[in-house]
């Protein structure tokens, strides 16, 4: 419902047009209204749903760390290049999050990073970003 | 009829030469490799490899590209079944029951059913293409913007109605997806909507980052941190093949998916994408045990996989018969044919019969090659599940990043994937279905364009949707579904969906890992 309100507010910047000649703001506003109404129905019918407090969030810290890793990949991909980014990402996930032995972490990180780069960039010609020193 | 078989004989004499067979094989191998990577689907694969065919003759080039197309379509289902990562939009529905089958140790049968279903659907739809191309193409041309709008509305309503959760929740998710699909430049006026300074959003939000985030990343977020990761049964060799019951359960969905996919595939536009969504909804509606859907029902793999493969052949009907591409992939194929000096259209069959029938025959050959190639690979793919999850999920994450980035070479897509992963995680925690969001993102630009074009055609008169028989029929069916769904709000307990357990399943929270 909150998203519907925000979107409806945002559509004020766009020409609405008319019912018979819709402008670029017409459909988003219509969808925001529909989303708001459906959100209200879901909220009103929520009485029979399990209580929020009953949800277990034991995996949340791990999930947050993985999301942080994904955000790092998005941030670093064109700055550090594909290979360095993947090495750092795998080192973090395997070494810090999963507590694997350093030798295993290094082997997997290097193997997957360099192997996937060779397969997709060199063999399949998928353009992947390179970082400093062409890495 | 006799002439058709004579022509087909001519086609096979072209398609079964060692050189053509070699290119069909190479195309299928490359396509499967490309399709397994999330993001780099058939469109990107064909586009990237198109220049590599410039040195080949026309027949070899088209056979190679068709092989890549088929291979990529099948490859997409492999990651959907094993890792819940849709290779492309058409594989989204395969994720739901395919991955549940994997969790129950039935990954092998799921992959085998997907391969056989794809083969049967592909082959039968080529028969349809062969005999029905001209009449069906003329029917497809009767689909103007009003019919297209009605079809898209119906597709959304069918999916929401047959969704495993409550209909208001599913419709809210579809509305959210449609809203996300509004981002980008409005093609009719040039207004840049909801861009927040990001030029990369001009073409809108891509389907691939949304689907990979909502399905693949959210699955990793939900399972990686569990104290004991969900046990995945490692199948024994004899368990790689479907049981007799699974074959029986799959036969009718494969047949229905083939027919449905072919009919939807011929419609101009990108309607073929919804064939797998509609097939899934249809199978659930027809099933005596709809509560099994979402829990690893083999019909939920057989129907959508057959439909999306059948739709790929259906999409060639308007392209070959009229020279009108029915979507982005046939458009690239059309461009490839034109590069090689072929002009698809009504005269192709009469002026270059060896090429037309060679193409048809090579599609048969490509399907057989794909089956021969992929059935033995089922065991190999399933062995990926033997990798311990703490090693598997980082690798999946890396391939998601790689695949999503590779589509447009844009880090904005990787950001979108991460955001959608977080959104999918929260939505699944609160028992919302995420498939309608993906469908909404796919359909939003087409839906809006069809609505506005229809109103432009009629001078702003909404009666255009009810004055054309095809559009009116589809809208009336959609309205009936909507009214049926409102019944339980007025008379609780009278909902057949509840009586067959569709809502009860979610209430029990069985899907929440």
Topology at a glance:
The complex is a heterodimer of chains A (135) and B (513).
Chain A: H1 2-10, H2 26-44, H3 60-80, H4 82-97, H5 102-123
Helix pairs in contact in A: 1-2, 3-4, 4-5
Chain B: H1 2-15, H2 18-36, H3 42-49, H4 58-83, H5 92-103, H6 107-140, H7 145-162, H8 167-181, E1 184-185, E2 192-193, H9 207-223, H10 244-265, H11 274-286, H12 299-314, H13 316-322, H14 328-339, H15 348-351, H16 353-382, H17 389-408, H18 411-429, H19 435-458, H20 464-467, H21 469-490, H22 496-499, H23 502-507
Antiparallel strand pairs in B: 1-2
Question: How would you describe what is shown here?
Answer:
The complex is a heterodimer of chains A (135) and B (513). Chain A has 135 residues and is mostly helical. Chain A has two domains: 2-54, no CATH class; 60-134, no CATH class. Chain A is built from five helices and no strands. The longest helix of chain A is centred in the last third of the chain and has 22 residues, at 102-123. Chain B has 513 residues and is an all-alpha fold. Helix content of chain B is 71%, strand content 1%. Chain B has helices at 2-15, 18-36, 42-49, 58-83, 92-103, 107-140, 145-162, 167-181, 207-223, 244-265, 274-286, 299-314, 316-322, 328-339, 348-351, 353-382, 389-408, 411-429, 435-458, 464-467, 469-490, 496-499, 502-507, and strands spanning 184-185, 192-193. Chain B has a two-stranded antiparallel sheet with strand order 1-2. Chain B is globular.
